[in-house]
Amino acid sequence: MEQELFKLRDLNQDDIKKYIVFLADPEVSVWLEDEVQNIRDPKNIENYLLYGWYRQSIQYNGEFVGISGLDLVNSINKVARFFIVIGKKNIWGKGIGHGVIKSIINHGFNKLKLRKINSDFLAPNEAVKIIHEKAGFKQDGILRQDSYRNEKWIDRVLVSIFPEDIKNH
Q: How is the chain split into domains, by residue range?
């Protein structure tokens, strides 16, 4: 994938509005945190995104297509949690997620001086599993029957990466 096709930048108010539209799409939101399954107050999403620790807008060919970043930072242990949401379904499978995850991880280790980055995803989401594996994340465990989606309980996969995992990958 050509890195020039996507760009990371700070989030703005217009991005928040578009992101909330993405969350209303069940094909997008089904894979996200339980908290966004039934958004009652969009202001909560706005506050989370604009005032979180490290949030970036993903642009593809100049258009807002999603968000990514690091949150749940533990500055004492130098650990944060990676997240990504690409809401534009017509660009799924084009390799953008792989480029974004590499950029965010590199920023976390090189600029923010993190020691470890955690992440998680719902087991049926093969696309997110693949980008984590390609980036060098290792599986730490499984939370069995952790989230209820599409009328059944599904597992959540816990993964993490250290700087040396990138070098050995």
A: 3-119
pLDDT single digits (tens) 51-82 = 778 999 999 988 999 999 998 788 899 999 99
Neighbours of 126 (CB within 10 A): 8
**Cα gap 169→156, rounded to integer Å:** 24
CATH class name, domain 3-119: alpha beta
pTM attached to this predicted model = 0.87
Pairwise CA distance, residues 5 & 95, whole Å? 10
**Cα separation of 42 and 130, whole Å?**
30
Sheet of 79-86: strands edge to edge?
6-9, 54-60, 63-74, 79-86, 116-122, 152-161, 138-149
